[in-house]
Amino acid sequence: MLPQVNRILxxxxxxxxxxxAFQYAVYLARETGADIHILxxxxxxxxxxxxxLQSYILNQSSREEFLHQRLNNAKAQLQQRQDYFWEQxxxxxxxxxxxxxxxxxxxxxxxxxxxxxxxxxxxxxIIMGAHEKGWFHTLxxxxxxxxxxxxxIPTLIVPRPEKKGS
Length: 166
Description:
Elements: E1 7-12, H1 16-32, E2 35-43, H2 47-56, H3 60-88, E3 100-108, H4 110-120, E4 125-129, H5 136-140, H6 142-150, E5 155-158
Parallel strand pairs: 1-2, 1-4, 2-3, 4-5
Helix pairs in contact: 4-6
């Protein structure tokens, strides 16, 4: 029996390549009838970063507001990217937007959060873009590399598109 793809977890770091990878998520949703769940993980602050934040922002409510604003900024940016994507897509494919059944921005450790949410959502496929810089480790990106290594479901890492004129 051939595998079925009913739920796709599309993970984004909000980079240009992540937007490119979303095209593949939508394409595969169209071809398989799968639903798409979008996930953006805002990396949790390290202990040193939290200490620095406490040193410079003494007021507890101001610190909490700063941390809350990080998530709100990511949500706003994700919404802008989604709106732009759907504005650019062919009119006959606009109905595919209904395939996006969930969109969340959470704070956590990216690899762990992606793997956890893929299980909780009972996803059949994870799609994410390769990192935009450097060579193998950074080309693939440590998050993508770790998800690829630890995932027990198929994971599609979409490479950067070739630059025009190359």
